[in-house]
Description:
- Helix content is 33%, strand content 18%.
- The protein has helices at 76-85, 92-102, 117-131, 144-157, 174-181, 192-200, 217-222, 226-234, 251-260, 291-299, 314-326, 340-351, 385-392, and strands at residues 3-6, 9-12, 36-37, 44-45, 107-110, 137-140, 165-168, 187-190, 211-214, 241-246, 265-268, 278-284, 307-310, 331-334, 357-360, 375-378, 402-408.
- Strands 7-8-6-9-10-5-11 form a seven-stranded parallel β-sheet, with helices on both faces.
- Helix 3 (117-131) crosses helix 4 (144-157) and helix 6 packs across helix 8.
Amino acid sequence: MYKKFFRGQKSSNTRFVRRKRSSAPSGAGRSGGPRRRAGRGGEVIHPSRFIQKGASAEQVEVFVPEHTFFDFAISAELKQAIEKRGYSTPTPIQDGLIPYILKGKDVIGIANTGTGKTGAFLIPLLDKILHNRKEQILIMAPTRELAMQIDDELKALSRGLKVYSVCCVGGMNIGPQIRALRQFNNVVVGTPGRLKDLMEQRVLRLSAFHTLVLDEADRMLDMGFIDDMRFIVAAMPKKRHTLFFAATMSPEIEKLTKTFLTDPAHISVKKQDTSKNVDQDVVRVPRAVDKIDILRDLLIQDEFSKVLIFGRTKHGVEKLSKQLTKKGISATSIHGNKNHAQRQRALKQFKDESVRVLVATDVAARGLDIPNVTHVINFDVPATYDDYVHRIGRTGRGDKSGKALTFVE
């Protein structure tokens, strides 16, 4: 039997091995230690990249914002709404971006997930609407979950302010979206594919939309939405206010910003790929030991109170969820074979903590704001390191700490 060590606490059956980072270059072969290929078409990721000690509470640098929300040149009723929503002090991305957006300047925001990015653009844009009730804004996001999350936050923040919005995403009945678009909306939030469909049906006309938000633009590019994005942006006025957000700034993304933006202000609060609030380690799976048994031994520990587990395939994720349920672990799943209602129900159960474990494919890795996730477990090694970064970004959000474990066979 294998002993289990997790941050110094002994238990039974599993062993966590904390290894020193390899000093070999990333291209090292046998002399640089083992490398792992993450599935078909995946890049080679050395296991050492999944190991990083999270900062302790004493080590975390306390951010002191230059502004309070009451310092910003926004309307009094919006300040009251911010206070009611429970926003206390601006996060770094909010502190840096809001003044530029209020001045009507194009911006590029580079930040890890969980940094308050949604509030950074919603607050100044709501102020813009309150000063001009005819203002129309388009917000584009890569996934329906993220689009719906943005719309939910918009509605919560603008409650009582008479701001009208509609969320247009695939996987849902298009009829209600068409009916909603026949009414005036200050904000349209949507995914590229559904927005393009609605434009082709001539129910969404963008000639009066003078503000554009591209959220997680790098993810939209990765998902192959570039042609849809160009089609949508081309239908908007050339003279517009554009806000561009990404977690990474690749050459392709930089090229896109030169096409879509004019003299933008750059604000980056990203200091490293992964959050310093996340303690990262690997779980070594010995031969002849079933991964599911090791996983169960982890999940029965009290500290694993709200756990997001990532698998590679839709079938594998569904199977794992059912196996955990049979072993007495309350679990549900989210993947592409589930319809929209089923996915939303699973997310709600996890958010409400009626189930303790959510098993997911990478569809859930970006953008979703699920509070208080204690652990992210990569049951299957991610296809790319970028996918890894976004997976583990579901824990350690804001000023909270989290733990990420990656199974390595």
